[in-house]
Amino acid sequence: MNNSVLRASGDPMGAAIYDYHKNGKAAKLRVFSSQFDEDEIPVEDLFRSFEDMPELEQVALKAAQGRILDVGAGSGCHSIALTGMGKDVMAIDISPLSVQVMLERGVHARQVNFYDDSFNEKFDTILMLMNGTGIVGTLDKMPAFFKRIKQLLAPGGSLLIDSSDLKYLYEEEDGSFMIDLADDYYGQIDYQMQYKNIKGQSFDWLYVDFDTLSYYAEESGLKAELLYEGEHYDFLARVICP
Ligand code: SAH
Questions:
Q1: Which of 21, 56, 69, 94 to mutate to test the pocket of ligand 1 (most atoms within 8 A of CB)?
Q2: With 90 as the cut, is the pLDDT of residue 211 above it?
């Protein structure tokens, strides 16, 4: 499992977040994938306030309690909203520029890779939002992911994580789904990002349906429950140690 952090020269999303923080605007944050056409992440969306957040995220923030860890926190939008609600939150991210921005915005942030087990504090809530399951990478890494979650959760604690079932991408006109079961799991996406002339390395980013997430949680001795279902195959799950 890769547990390193990024350097600023290979941190396109962090550079976009940094520009937006400094100047109130940013250039295009471009997203490439071997599976899709080129896309773009609107950088201002990464700075969304509680009111601008989708209901799924608002539900997650309201449910977060105790000592909270915001994993892959980006600009710190969720951490800032949680602090505003009087909650106790720490943020981690592999992006040096995002961590710098979070510190400047008053977030208690550290540049840490989620998989680095020299980081071994305990949290009552682990929050992973904006396709939080992305950090798992590929389905075969699900056991290692949940092992790490169990190390970080305090007794009685829970993971709040969102994802989307990408099966809709394979929907035929008659409503059936054309999925090749011999192929890799359909939610395994490779991405690469570019901001100005800064191009990041390609990485695996997993989207997973609730039943598959729940299956792997149970294999690890955990229990997943559906907290919220969005309108477009997206959902929020709570995973607990029963
Ligand atoms: N949660 C934020 C940002 C989502 S983008 C939001 O909703 O706006 C995903 C973030 O996860 C990026 O900032 C990326 O740098 C970070 N990230 C990716 N892999 C990580 C890892 N292994 N450990 C910590 N952060 C990671």
A1: 94
A2: yes
Atom nearest to 135 CA in ligand 1: 19
Beta bridge partners of 229: 235
Closest-lying ligand 1 atom to the alpha carbon of residue 48: 8
Amino acid, res. 242: P
Q: What angle do CA 196, 198, 199 make, to 5 degrees?
A: 115
Q: Is 193 exposed, middle or buried (0-12, 13-18, 19+ CB in 10 A)?
A: buried
Residue 72 alpha carbon to ligand 1 centre in Å: 3
- What is each CA distance from 163 to 8, 46, 83, 103, 130, in whole angstroms? 28, 17, 24, 27, 7
For 239, which DSSP code?
Answer: E
The mean pLDDT of the chain is: 96
Mean pLDDT, range 77-105, rounded to an integer = 98
CATH code reported for the domain at 52-187+207-240:
3.40.50.150
- Indicate whether residue 99 lines ligand 1 (CB < 6 A): no
Distance 175 CA to ligand 1 centre (A): 34
- Reported as a pLDDT band with limits 50, 70 and 90, residue 52 is very high
Phi-psi region of 74 (alpha: psi -120 to 50; beta: other; left: phi over 0): left
What's the average model confidence in pLDDT over 27-44?
Answer: 96
pLDDT in tens, 126-185: 999 999 999 999 999 999 999 999 999 999 999 999 999 999 888 888 988 888 877 889
